[in-house]
Design brief:
- The protein contains 19 helices and two strands.
- The relative contact order is 0.16.
- It is about 85% helix and about 0% strand.
- It has a single domain, classed as MFS general substrate transporter like domains (Growth Hormone, Chain: A), CATH 1.20.1250.
- It is mainly α.
């Protein structure tokens, strides 16, 4: 496989991915509105757990397949089609609200199909980055990209809370439909470098290429350890954030405005963390810094779980610390992966990492929903934070993780498919 080598300036990257921030605000508005509607109607952690499972199932079962096709298809076209169909799904949900025919299972179904399209879109975005940006700028771009996405997390919750007090939910959903073209049009105008494929590669079956990606991931010991740790973390941490609306309503005894504060804090943590990483441009010893940031993430989550019900400000501060440090850790780790995994393998490897690491999340959600209804969500925040802290400490003493960058060339020579 040969690649068209291009090192576009950061401005070119910002035009494509930054333009989608506006559309992402619309998508976050939809997500915030639907989740709050489910919370208000059912007041059930189990219902929210099921909704979160609908988000995760496509990542687990469709993710590996999407990665194979994204390594073959035009990644720009994938993003355009995904944006358009997501807007169409939102339109259908809005019409159901207008017709007074909406049911909870409609929300589940809409979330499920939006997640399928999101799986293709996100992987196409991630796999395109290394084609557009040089290795020396990957850490900076990872930070800036997270900051752009975080703008949606900052703006959408308070805007969604305000709009829900002023208009019916179907009008709020219409915002997502109207912002979709703002993400699609720049993709029609800006070129993303393409991968060219040999006839042998094009003739390979989907199953063969999926196995090829799995062998690459599993035979590289450092990547395998990262996958194992991600599985451990996701099992307990994904339910904690999925159940945040219930924690706000039942534990803090607050409403949609306070939920918007916490959601906005989440976004501010991401954008400041991404801004710091973007300005810093990376670190000389990226792995130790990522593990230190991961340990700080665990500490912040533990504090959040122990926060008393009458100290919402403490919850806001600890959530900020958690998200800020996680953004630093995640940005560094992903920049490392983008720099060491060959471009022709990134679609498959990234989707496999995401799919396998999140495969245990539905089990965590199934277990956490009833237990949170009985014992409270705070239990999961504390246990999740302890797990992250322990994982970061253990990782520092695993040589294949600590030296994954230095050993990349040697590892690739032994695991890369011929």
């Amino acid at each position: 496989m040969k690649e068209e080598q291009t090192d576009l300036p950061l401005r070119g990257f910002a035009i494509i991915f930054g333009s989608q921030t506006v559309s992402l605000i619309g998508s976050k508005l939809v997500q915030f509105s639907l989740i709050w509607w489910l919370t208000s109607i059912t007041r059930s952690a189990t219902v929210l757990a099921i909704a979160s499972t609908m988000v995760l199932l496509p990542q687990v079962f469709i993710g590996p397949l999407s990665g194979v096709y994204i390594d073959r298809w035009n990644r720009r076209i994938v993003m355009i089609v995904a944006d358009a169909i997501v807007a169409l799904i939102t339109l259908v949900i809005a019409l159901l609200y207008i017709s007074n025919l909406i049911h909870i299972w409609h929300i589940y179904l809409g979330i499920f199909f939006r997640s399928i399209l999101g799986t293709f879109q996100l992987t196409a975005m991630q796999a395109s980055t290394s084609l557009m940006i040089s290795d020396r700028n990957l850490s900076r771009v990872a930070g800036l990209n997270q900051s752009l996405n975080a703008v949606a997390n900052i703006v959408a919750p308070p805007l969604g809370a305000l709009l829900l007090t002023l208009m019916p939910i179907q009008n709020v959903l219409a915002v997502d439909i109207m912002t979709a073209p703002l993400a699609i049009i720049p993709l029609l105008l800006v070129t993303i470098p393409k991968l060219t494929h040999s006839k042998k590669e094009m003739d390979q079956s989907v199953l063969f290429r999926m196995k090829e990606g799995m062998r690459f991931l599993w035979n590289w010991e450092g990547l395998r350890w990262i996958l194992v740790i991600a599985i451990m973390i996701n099992f307990l941490t994904i339910p904690t954030f999925s159940l945040l609306p219930i924690h706000v309503k039942e534990f803090f005894n607050k409403g949609v405005i306070e939920l918007a504060w916490l959601e906005t804090t989440y976004g501010i943590g991401i954008i400041i963390g991404g801004f710091v990483l973007g300005i810093r441009g990376g670190f000389k010893r990226r792995v130790p810094m990522a593990l230190l940031a991961l340990a700080s993430t665990g500490i912040g989550l533990i504090v959040f779980g122990f926060t008393p019900a009458d100290l919402l400000i403490m919850a806001i501060a600890s959530l900020f610390l958690t998200v800020f440090m996680y953004t630093i850790a995640n940005g560094i780790i992903f920049a490392i992966l983008q720099s060491i995994v060959p471009s022709k393998m990134q679609g498959r490897v990234f989707t496999l990492l995401i799919s396998i690491s999140t495969s245990v999340a539905p089990l965590g959600l199934i277990i956490s929903g009833p237990i949170a209804d009985t014992f409270g969500v705070g239990f999961w925040y504390v246990v999740g934070g302890l797990l992250i802290l322990l994982s970061s400490i253990v990782s520092f003493f695993i040589p294949t993780i600590r030296h994954i960058e230095e050993n990349a060339n040697i590892e690739i020579s032994t695991v890369i498919p011929s």
